[in-house]
Design a protein that fits this description.
7-stranded parallel beta sheet, 7 strands, globular, 8 helices, alpha/beta, Rossmann fold
Amino acid sequence: MQATVVTGGSRGIGRAVVERLVGDGATVVFSYAADEQAALQVEEACGGRAVAVRADAADLDQMERLFATADKVFADRAAGPLTALVNNAGVIDHSPIDELTPERFERVMAVNVRGAFFAVQAAARRMADGGRIVTISSTGTAWPSAGESVYAASKAAIEQLTRVTSRELGRRGITVNAVSPGPTDTDMLRANTPPEAVAGVAHMTALGRVGTPADIAAVVALLLTPDAGWLTGQNLVADGGLV
């Protein structure tokens, strides 16, 4: 039975990942930053197989509490030691370079890079041999857009973290990969992108649509299976043929 931690699991892609993994038989502990109602809805939808923990990825003490809670949940439910981590928590900032403040820069880097880095560290210290680590990146590292300088930089950093960590943990049979979604129909996309721009991007993909959170969750789930054991240090672009 899979014992999985998902960061940022209350909405969008993270929620889809939690629900998919629970449907596949995993016991999941997931974090959320602020929206308790959304987190409780995920717990309810998962029939008690997922446990929410409030933890801001930028706060290392809160993240340590997330993993300590996961240890207890997995032990209480006889799920075994941690077998998988999905690093999904992230924030975006659309400020142009000449308007980006140090505070906004630090917030993006604290969540997207530092939070992901130390989540990997915490997971690696607990994880059984043969485990799986997946971090959500973005096609913004290969298809840059104006106003996404710090966001794209943060995702590029975790892609390199993925490659290096795969080398460090490979001897334990632990695979470490990234998934880079293209435009995906989430609240974040709708809040930051005009409808006409979403429609335009949909026509640019090979499949003629933007992705759904379930599309990305399916790719993540694939990487957590035994069949993906020979795939590590990779960045899988899940964008419907956009890039």
